[in-house]
């Protein structure tokens, strides 16, 4: 049975461009049909295309990831997914921007130990970066609120007349059409 190459790409939002990661996957000789893309946060692995990929990948297949932070940002979940793929499924993982994280190269116990150690450190760093992002975001929101910036929709002012018509409609004194006519709402 022939082993397949898969690529996994993640960008944090629909506005971000996956072009750089896609180009790297093409350079590895991965066909378009074997590249899986998710446009959402890396906070967990509940991503539709990642879950589909995980059901398809088999023993001996190789999963290419551009960088560990594109895989995920939660240390425990990164380690869990890494172990699921490499130990349970027995697929290989290659992190393109981190040559030490290439399970196709390090099959002996020392190589596995080094790769596992690097993975622990890098997944911790990815999680720390996520925490820094969240902290900066919270600080920015707090500062904006302090400076009087409003978030969300502008509150709608409801007149006493509207409230009275609404009460009549709720109690059955008016039909919906009559209530709309009294308040000037178009149907």
Structure in a nutshell:
This protein is α/β, with parallel strands linked by helices and 187 residues long.
Please tell me about this protein's structure:
- This protein is an alpha/beta fold and 187 residues long.
- It folds into two domains: 5-131, Resolvase, N-terminal catalytic domain (Rossmann fold), CATH 3.40.50; 156-187, no CATH class.
- Helices cover 50% and strands 11% of the residues.
- It contains seven helices and four strands.
- The protein has a four-stranded parallel β-sheet, with helices on both faces.
- β1 (5-11), α1 and β2 (35-39) form a beta-alpha-beta unit.
- α4 runs antiparallel to α5 and α6 runs antiparallel to α7.
- The relative contact order is 0.10.
- The model has no long low-confidence stretch (mean pLDDT 86).
SSE order and pairing:
Blueprint: E1 5-11, H1 19-27, E2 35-39, H2 48-56, E3 62-65, H3 68-71, H4 75-88, E4 92-95, H5 109-146, H6 160-171, H7 176-183
Parallel strand pairs: 1-2, 1-3, 3-4
Number of helices: 7
Chain-averaged pLDDT: 86
Measure the end-to-end span: 64 Å
Structure summary, number of beta strands? 4
Q: Fraction of residues in helices?
A: 40-55%
Largest sheet: 4 strands, parallel
Strand order of the largest sheet: 2-1-3-4
By CATH, the architecture of the largest domain is named 3-Layer(aba) Sandwich
CATH superfamily of the largest domain: Resolvase, N-terminal catalytic domain
Top CATH class of the largest domain: Alpha Beta
> At the third CATH level, what is the topology name of the largest domain?
Rossmann fold
**Gyration radius, rounded:** 26 Å
β-sheet strand percentage: 5-15%
Q: Which spans have pLDDT < 50 for at least 5 consecutive residues?
A: none
* Shape annotation: elongated
The SS-based structural class is alpha/beta
Kindly give the count of domains: 2
The topology string of helices and strands comes to: EHEHEHHEHHH
GO molecular function: DNA binding; DNA strand exchange activity
Active site: 12 (o-(5'-phospho-dna)-serine intermediate)
Protein name: Recombinase family protein
Keywords: DNA integration, DNA recombination, DNA-binding, Plasmid
């Amino acid at each position: 049975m022939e082993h397949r190459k898969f690529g996994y790409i993640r960008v944090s939002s629909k506005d971000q461009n996956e072009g750089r990661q896609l180009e790297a996957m093409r350079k590895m000789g991965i066909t378009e049909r074997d590249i899986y893309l998710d446009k959402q946060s890396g906070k967990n692995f509940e991503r539709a295309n990642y879950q589909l990929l995980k059901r398809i990948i088999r023993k001996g297949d190789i999963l290419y990831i551009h960088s560990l932070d594109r895989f995920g940002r939660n240390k425990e979940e990164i380690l869990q997914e890494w172990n699921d793929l490499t130990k349970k499924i027995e697929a290989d993982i290659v992190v393109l921007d981190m040559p030490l994280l290439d399970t196709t190269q390090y099959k002996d116990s020392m190589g596995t130990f080094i790769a596992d150690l690097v993975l622990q450190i890098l997944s911790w760093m990815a999680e720390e970066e996520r925490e820094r992002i969240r902290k900066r975001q919270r600080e920015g929101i707090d500062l904006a609120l302090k400076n009087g910036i409003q978030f969300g929709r502008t509150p709608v002012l409801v007149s006493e007349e509207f409230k009275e018509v609404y009460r009549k409609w709720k109690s059955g004194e008016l039909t919906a059409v009559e209530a709309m006519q009294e308040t000037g709402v178009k149907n």
